[in-house]
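Practice problem: predict the structure.
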Amino acid sequence: MRQVTVEEAREMLQGDNPPQLVDCRQPWEHDHCRIAGDVLMPLGDLLDNVGDLDRARPVLVYCHAGVRSINAAVMLEHEGFETMSMRGGIEAWSLRIDPTVPRY
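Answer:
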């Protein structure tokens, strides 16, 4: 599992073959703010939902500040996925990539 910066994440998501973007936060957090194109899979339910992910594509996981996403990425890696965690989470995304994303 590797960590990527929000700048690297943006570049990958805008590329020709973007990774699957997974938000491992809680539904109320996702309702407050999110990154377009993501799939909500709260950390506690993650392993119950791995069947919804394409094993042939990398998975980029994010959370609020980057801690839960590390755990989620490690869990997915143990399930055979190529994973990445977005360092700094949606907080860093809002500060450095898209200031229209609300902070909390």
